[in-house]
Every structure is written in structure tokens, then in C-alpha cells.
Design a protein that fits this description.
The structure holds 2 protein chains of 2 kinds. By secondary structure, chain A is an all-beta fold. Chain A is built from no helices and 11 strands. Chain B has no helices and 11 strands. By secondary structure, chain B is mainly beta. The chains are: A mainly beta, B mainly beta.
Chain lengths: 112, 110
């Protein structure tokens, strides 16, 4: 079975722009979570979505938003990009929201 | 916020040696997870622990959930070059927020 997939793999944006990152969970998984991983640090939790509703939120500004679609895929949106938003953005899926998570390869975002 | 301390920060070992790393938290949790991350890739789940005192193995990897529910360790026996990477512990709280440790970078010298 295919694992978690994310697109694009790499992205370069400039300050102030908007970005949309996409994630497709493992087939049968209904929960998707998003993480930001800055170089040299562990992943930081941004959001968790389950059954198309936000079920958990980390300490990130309102510039970060997400949604989950009926097929359980998800998008992460970041507005008004800052240099500090440069990071690896990871998506993880799980069968239900309490279950252990399986990660995708990530999207490398560079903000210039 | 939740404090999750992972040690050591980095390790350099000879191939064939055993490795031990640990995580401690400032609060009690019900689930401990251990992940490995290779450069440019997402973390891969190694072991999940759900009960205090639980000891679980996955091949050469063994992890234990501490009795106090505030700590966990991961051991790797007879290390090989492909064990190189960054190892993270992770926790999830009742509010569905997930916390990752700062990671242990492992280098195996052939």
C-alpha cells in the first residue's frame, strides 16, 4: 500500500506570499496531522484533523490554516510568509485521531 | 508548555556497539513513541508504547515505558551503519497535541 504522500516536494516563495501544501493519507486513515520541522529541531505540531474537523492545534499564528476533504486528504495554507516559515512541513496520518501516526516525506519550503 | 528532554544530543559509536538513549517529560503521558528520521525524509515509526512498564522489541531495537510514565528509553543492539540517523521520542496528550523531543543524532563508525 502507498504511504503518506505530500506535494510538492520542494517550494521556494518570497516574503508576504501565500503557500498551499497538500497531503494524501494512507488508505483507510481518517486523521491527518501537520508539523513544522525547522533544521536541527524535532517536528512541532501545527494541526490535527479528523473527519474533516480540526481536533487539535499547536502554538502557531492564525496565518496557518488547514482543511480536510471528504476523501481525507488535507491542505495546509500559510499566508503572509515570513523568513522564519522556512522549514520542512510534514504530514502524518493515522487510523483514528488517538492512534500512532505515519509520516510522509515532507515538503521543503524556503522563504526568501 | 510540555517539556520533553531527550539525551544524549548526539552519539558517535563503533559498528557493533550497543546504543542507549532516553527521554523524560515534565508530565505524565499514556503513550510514548520512538521515531527515526533519515536526512530529507519524514520520521519513521519504530516502536509504540502504551502501558507503564511495557517493554517492546522490534528486531535489534528495544524500548521501555517507564513506571512513572514520565520517561522512556530506546536501546539498539549491535549497531550497523544503516542505524545512522536522528532518533526522536514523541508523546501525545489528552488534547491531541503531539510533542517531539529534540532528537538524538546517531553516527555509526564502520
Amino acid at each position: 500500500d502507498a504511504g503518506v504522500t505530500q506535494s510538492p516536494t520542494h517550494l521556494i516563495k518570497t516574503r508576504g506570499q501565500h503557500v498551499t501544501l497538500r497531503c494524501s493519507p494512507i488508505s483507510g486513515h481518517k486523521s491527518v496531522s501537520w508539523y513544522q520541522q525547522v533544521l536541527g529541531q524535532g517536528p512541532q505540531f501545527i494541526f490535527q484533523y479528523y473527519e474533516k474537523e480540526e481536533r487539535g492545534r499547536g502554538n502557531f499564528p492564525d496565518r496557518f490554516s488547514a482543511r480536510q476533504f471528504p476523501n481525507y486528504s488535507s491542505e495546509l495554507n500559510v499566508n503572509a510568509l515570513l523568513l522564519g516559515d522556512s522549514a520542512l512541513y510534514l504530514c502524518a496520518s493515522s487510523l483514528v485521531r488517538e492512534n500512532t501516526q505515519y509520516f510522509g516525506p515532507g515538503t521543503r519550503l524556503t522563504v526568501l | 508548555g510540555q517539556q520533553l528532554n531527550q539525551s544524549p544530543q548526539s552519539m558517535f559509536i563503533q559498528e557493533g556497539e550497543d546504543v542507549s538513549m532516553n527521554c523524560t517529560s515534565s508530565s505524565i503521558f499514556n503513550t510514548w513513541l520512538w521515531y527515526k528520521q533519515d536526512p530529507g525524509e519524514g520520521p519513521v515509526l519504530l516502536i509504540a508504547l502504551y502501558k507503564a512498564g511495557e517493554l517492546t522489541s522490534n528486531g535489534r531495537l528495544t524500548a521501555q515505558f517507564g513506571i512513572t510514565r514520565k520517561d522512556s528509553f530506546l536501546n539498539i543492539s549491535a549497531s550497523i551503519p544503516s542505524d545512522v540517523g536522528i532518533y526522536f521520542c514523541a508523546l501525545v496528550n489528552t488534547g491531541n497535541q503531539f510533542y517531539f523531543g529534540t532528537g538524538t543524532s546517531l553516527t555509526v563508525i564502520p
